[in-house]
Amino acid sequence: MTIRIPVFLLKTKSLPADGYEEYFEQLDEGRYSPVFVPVLEHKFTQNALQSIKEHILNGAFLPSSLQSSHKYGGIIFTSQRAVEAFTYVIDELRQENQNVEALFTASLPIYVVGPATGRGLRALGLPCQIVGEEAGNGEALAAFMLEHYNDLWRPTQADNDKQVLKPGLLFLVGEQRRDIIPKTLMSASLPEDLRIDVEELTVYETGVMENFSKNFAQLVSQKSAQVQKQWVIVFSPTGCKAMLEVLGMLNSDTGKVEEVQQTQSAAPYIATIGPTTRDYLISEFRYTPDACAIKPSAEGLGEVILNFEHKQSTMSK
Question: 254 with 183, same domain?
Answer without folding.
Answer: no
